[in-house]
Specification:
It is a single chain. By secondary structure, the protein is mainly α. The protein has one domain (4-443): Cytochrome C Oxidase, Chain A (Up-down Bundle), CATH 1.20.210.10. Helices cover 74% and strands 1% of the residues. It is built from 15 helices and 2 strands. Strands 1-2 form a two-stranded antiparallel sheet. α1 (8-35) packs antiparallel against α2 and α4 runs antiparallel to α5. The radius of gyration is 21 Å and the shape is globular. Bound molecules: protoporphyrin IX containing FE (2 copies) and fe (ii) ion. Residues 114-115, 186, 190-191, 238-239, 257, 260-261, 298, 302-303, 306-307, 309-310, 315, 319-320, 324, 327-328, 331-332, 335 line the site of one protoporphyrin IX containing FE. One protoporphyrin IX containing FE binds next to α6, α10 and α12.
């Protein structure tokens, strides 16, 4: 670690671990409910659990991106963070707004719009909070003498993510219009600007871990950004097929969204190529595993499984079923959860000065969580395909079908348990590093150059 202010990132990462744990608890509540054991129904009905599960996911990922920015930006632009105090205030207020929203969901204070459930008054607080964050990081870049492509891509992604929150705050009486603009947030986040954030963090990690020239890595980053926008913007149309939007979206959405996997393929090829050109043996192999794992799993979850239901002819049957949950889990895990876990894994030894690389628990955490998540994806896929045939092809009633697919959720809960053991080990490893310390300032990465 070069700058003392980078330590702030630790508190963002610790918050991530806490919110991630809570997210999983709500996942289990839903998993059991799907099996037929909806014992908490009166206290936490399914819709509440679902909103809490998905919103916690979004909040812990955003907190992780913010932590990553606090660590990466000072290092890239070579100066201390503009204001450490402001960073703490911003994190604290983010947690307060988040907790109020979560409590609100339990007492029916929410907007029933998937992923954008946070009630309007709290939305304004989120906006102020995110502006504070962007101001702090923006001033750090502005006051510095240099800005790298990596830091610009990361920062642009964060600014664009904030701007794209706004269309979700416009009020419409009309359901189609509301849905139309809701996708500007949800789709253009995960299949647009979040990819820039992911690309920025990925490029930073690859520069550090493989030792390949920055120029080469940043050239790839341009290609990935280009592919993302080329396909992702008009790809929004894959959510407009059957919601009452004009018919031309069937063509536009089908064609452009079918091209979206290219950006994820680019990301995977990018990481693999840089890995093979690596001229450096970085001691933190686990961070490299998370980085490579992210590039590959995001292609499988987002690219491959996204493509599986993106054509209008398929989506007509799969829309809103458990097939969507199958894709949603592996895509979010591969692309965004894994990149956050990668940067945490990379930065913890450097922030704390404890070179606790490659422990047994760390390795187990990687493999158990990934195998568990693949198992969960498989369980959702089986339940989803059964649901499509029974409900959409044979015309059985929705709730009757839910009963038919109950046994598949035993598989889900078992795989989720394996996944959770992996995450518990990851968090255990995280706590073993202890707190960040100024003694870690200037500690080298101990790399051995092999070429
Ligand atoms: C990391 C990137 C991605 C993430 C995190 C992600 C996640 C999700 C999530 C959570 C949903 C459900 C949204 C909702 O109903 O509110 C969804 C829907 C969908 N995604 Fe993705 N996705 C990603 C990339 C892709 C890509 C690249 C494609 C296409 C190639 C794709 C195709 C779809 C389609 C067609 C739907 C609509 C499903 C339906 O009609 O129910 N996704 N995605
Ligand atoms: C203990 C582990 C987990 C369990 C048991 C679990 C279970 C579930 C269940 C049962 C649903 C509701 C599906 C439905 O609508 O019927 C759901 C939704 C969702 N979960 Fe999880 N989950 C877990 C972990 C995760 C993780 C780690 C992520 C992200 C990396 C994630 C992302 C999502 C998303 C995006 C949705 C919404 C999907 C959609 O829009 O269809 N979950 N989860
Ligand atoms: Fe989409």
């Amino acid at each position: 670690m070069k700058y003392a202010s980078q330590k702030v990132a630790f508190w963002f990462f610790a918050t991530c671990m806490l919110l991630f744990t809570l997210q999983l608890i709500y996942g289990f509540i839903m998993g059991f409910a799907h099996m037929g054991f909806d014992v908490l129904h009166d206290l936490i009905p399914f819709n509440t659990a679902r909103a809490v599960h998905t919103n916690l996911l979004v909040v812990w990922l955003l907190t992780g991106f913010m932590g990553a920015a606090h660590y990466i930006i000072p290092d890239e632009v070579q100066r201390e963070l503009y204001s450490v105090k402001l960073a703490y205030i911003q994190l604290g207020s983010l947690v307060v707004v988040g907790v109020v929203a979560l409590i609100g969901f339990h007492v029916n204070w929410w907007e029933g719009r998937k992923f954008l459930e946070i009630p309007r008054p709290l939305d304004y607080l989120v906006v102020v909070n995110v502006l504070t964050f962007l101001f702090n990081i923006g001033m750090t870049v502005f006051k510095a003498n240099r800005a790298s492509t990596t830091s610009i891509v990361l920062y642009t992604g964060l600014v664009a993510a904030a701007l794209l929150y706004l269309p979700g705050m416009i009020y419409f009486e009309n359901q189609t219009m509301d849905s139309y603009f809701r996708w500007w947030v949800v789709h253009l986040w995960v299949e647009g600007v979040w990819e820039l954030i992911m690309g920025g963090i990925l490029a930073y990690l690859l520069i550090k871990l493989t030792g390949v020239d920055r120029e080469v890595i940043e050239k790839w980053l341009y290609i990935i950004v280009g592919l993302t926008f080329l396909s992702g913007i008009l790809g929004t149309g894959h959510h407009y097929y059957y919601i009452g939007a004009p018919k031309y979206w069937l063509w536009v959405g089908g064609i452009f969204s079918a091209l979206e996997p290219l950006a994820f393929l680019g990301m995977a090829l990018f990481a693999i190529t840089m890995y093979r050109r690596s001229g450096r043996e970085h001691p933190n192999k686990l961070a490299l595993m998370w980085t490579m794992g992210c590039a590959i799993m995001s292609f499988v979850g987002a690219g491959f499984l996204g493509f599986a239901h993106t054509l209008p002819q398929v989506n007509l049957y799969t829309h809103g079923t458990l097939v969507t949950a199958m894709h949603g889990h592996l895509a979010f895990w591969g692309a965004y959860a894994m990149i956050v876990l990668a940067i945490i894994n990379y930065s913890m030894p450097l922030m704390t000065g404890r070179k606790n690389y490659g422990s047994m628990t760390g390795n187990l955490a990687f493999w158990l969580s990934n195998i568990g998540m693949l198992g969960m994806t498989g369980a959702f896929a089986v339940a989803g395909i059964a649901q499509v045939y029974l409900e959409r092809k044979m015309g059985m009633d929705f709730l009757q079908v839910q009963r038919e697919v109950e046994p598949h959720f035993l598989g889900l809960v078992l795989a989720a348990s394996l996944f959770t053991v992996g995450i518990a080990l990851y968090i255990f490893d995280f706590t073993k590093f202890g707190f960040p310390s100024d003694e870690a300032l200037g500690v080298s990465e101990d790399t051995t150059v092999v070429v």
